[in-house]
Structure formats: structure tokens, C-alpha cells
Amino acid sequence: MSNSAASSRRPAQTAGDATESAEETAVAAPWVAVVTEKVRSMRYGIVQIVVHDSKVVQIERTERTRFDIPQSTGQR
């Protein structure tokens, strides 16, 4: 690999860099906090993020309630 190709690559992120980037994203994009809250507050379900023109415009949450169904014993 030539030096010019190697120099155009991004340096590898360290764990500290990744954490810092996530914190910057949370501050810069308030939708991250909304998604986090929606995920944490449900047991089963779906959180969808709707994007328009590279911007998050809507967050949808579908929560499911599951019931345990007793196994049949083969009798009707």
C-alpha cells in the first residue's frame, strides 16, 4: 500500500474516542435520548426511526404484550 493511500485512511478509534463520539451525538441529536428512553421503557416491541433528507423526522414505537399460553395436554 502506498503512503498516500495509508494517509487518507481514518485512524482507528480507541474506546475513549467512541465514548466521546457517542456523547457528542447525544448532545447534537436529541432524538438519540428519545430512542433510548423508548427502548428502556418497554419489554417487547419495535422502535422505528423515520428519516427524511438525512434527518430523523419521526420515531415510532409499537409495544407488544405477551401472555403465557398453557400447553395443551392433548385433550379437547
From TrEMBL:
It holds the Pfam family DUF2292. Residues 1-11 have a biased composition (Polar residues). InterPro entries: DUF2292. Residues 1-27 are annotated as: Disordered. This is DUF2292 domain-containing protein. It comes from Chthoniobacter flavus Ellin428.
